[in-house]
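Backbone-to-sequence.
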C-alpha cells in the first residue's frame, strides 16, 4: 500500500477515517495530534512547548514537527504504507515531508481530502469536547483553528493538486457513505 496523507479542516474526521483505513489495509498510522497530546500528558519538554502553541490555536513549528515525524516514521514496519493524519499542514511541511520520504527512497503516495461544511465541523468539535474532555475544543479556540486552517493549511490542497496526488471526498451527511467512497477509491490503488 502507498503512503496516504489524510487532509481536512479540524473536525473533518481525519482521525476517524484514518483508523478505518488502517484497519482495512493494515497500514501504519501517524497522528500528529495523538503524538502531541501524549507529549503534553507526559509533561515532557516538547509537550510543554507544544501546549503553548495548541492552547493559542497555533500550529507547531515545522522543524519540531519534522523531527517528531521522522522519528515516528522510522519506527514503523517497512513496506506496509503509513497514513499521515494531521500532517503536513503547510506547504513548507509538505516539502519537508516529501524530502524526508525521498531520503528513505519512499514517496508521499496520495492525499485524501475530506471536505465538510463549517457548521458541521463546529458541531462535531464542540461535541468531541464534551465527550473527550479536550480543552483545545472550545468555541473560541475552534474558530481560531478554522482561521489558521483557511490561511495556512487550505492553500496546501493546491500544492497536492500540482503534485498530482490530490483526491477529494465531500461529506454527504453519512460517515458510512463517505467511507465507502474512500474504500472504493483505495481498492483501485
Amino acid at each position: 500500500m502507498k503512503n496516504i496523507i489524510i487532509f481536512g479542516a479540524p473536525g473533518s474526521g481525519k482521525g476517524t477515517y484514518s483508523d478505518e483505513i488502517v484497519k482495512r489495509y493494515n497500514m501504519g498510522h501517524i497522528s500528529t495530534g495523538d503524538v502531541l497530546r501524549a507529549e503534553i500528558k507526559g509533561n515532557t519538554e516538547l509537550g510543554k512547548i507544544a501546549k503553548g502553541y495548541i492552547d493559542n490555536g497555533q500550529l507547531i513549528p515545522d522543524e519540531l514537527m519534522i523531527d517528531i515525524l521522522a522519528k515516528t516514521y522510522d519506527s514503523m514496519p517497512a513496506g506496509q504504507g503509513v497514513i499521515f493524519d494531521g500532517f503536513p499542514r503547510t506547504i513548507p511541511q509538505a516539502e519537508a515531508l516529501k524530502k524526508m520520504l525521498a531520503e528513505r527512497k519512499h514517496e508521499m503516495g496520495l492525499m485524501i481530502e475530506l471536505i465538510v461544511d463549517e457548521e458541521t465541523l463546529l458541531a462535531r468539535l464542540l461535541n468531541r469536547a464534551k465527550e473527550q474532555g479536550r480543552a483545545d475544543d472550545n468555541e473560541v479556540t475552534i474558530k481560531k483553528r478554522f482561521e489558521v486552517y483557511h490561511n495556512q493549511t487550505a492553500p496546501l490542497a493546491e500544492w497536492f493538486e500540482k503534485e498530482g496526488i490530490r483526491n477529494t471526498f465531500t461529506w454527504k451527511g453519512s460517515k458510512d457513505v463517505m467511507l465507502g467512497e474512500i474504500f472504493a477509491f483505495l481498492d483501485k490503488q
